[in-house]
Amino acid sequence: MAPAKFSDPTAEAPAPGGSMMKWLATMLALTLVAVAGGGALGSYLVASIKRSVESKAKPDTTTVAEGKAANDMNLRDLPPVVTNLAEPADAWVRVQASIVFDPKLVAKPDVLAAQISEDIMGFMKTVSLTQIGGASGLQHLREDLNERAMIRSDGKVRELIIEALVVQ
User: Within this chain, do residues 54 and 91 fall inside the same structural domain, yes or no?
Assistant: First the structure.
């Protein structure tokens, strides 16, 4: 049998408060690192927000140029279009729209508005209710009507805006 090892009673025992002091010192160091990192991140975010606000406050030259171009455009309401849809046959649709055009290019805007309105009526008679249902259907209808307005006006109409679409 191996002899049992006994601890030396004269040897120094570790101080009970020593490990606690090391733990407190480590926590204090970590807290100081976290405070310094948070302060640096906060000051960086504040500076970037100030730069963003200052850049938005300055007048942008591209928006001024677009504003001048937009002043050259006119908006004309089209006569309301009321017609039935292709499918189901008893469904009716009412479309109110406007066109945006350059008055220098269009000599008779009332005639052009009437022609585009007739074209919309003819197109809506070929559309089914499922084709214009939902957000994507409305987007496709808007694109189709824009294209038809541009073709009818030989590119003089910049955009057709759907103001109201009622299906009954």
Answer: no
Would 155 be classed as within a structural domain?
A: yes
Name every residue whose Cβ is closer than 8 Å to that of residue 148 and which is 6 or more positions away in sequence: 116, 119, 120, 123, 160
pLDDT per residue over 117-135, tens digit each? 999 999 999 998 898 888 8
**Residue 92: closest CA among 165, 14, 41:** 165
Residues 29 and 108 in one domain: no
Q: Determine whether 101 is exposed, middle or buried from the number of CB atoms within 10 Å of its CB (0-12, 13-18, 19+).
A: buried
Supply the pTM of this predicted model: 0.56
How far does Cα 69 stand from its chain's mean position? 24
Whether residue 63 has pLDDT greater than 70:
no
Greatest C-alpha distance within the chain: 119
**Which of 101, 93, 75, 83 shows the shortest CA–CA distance to 138?**
93
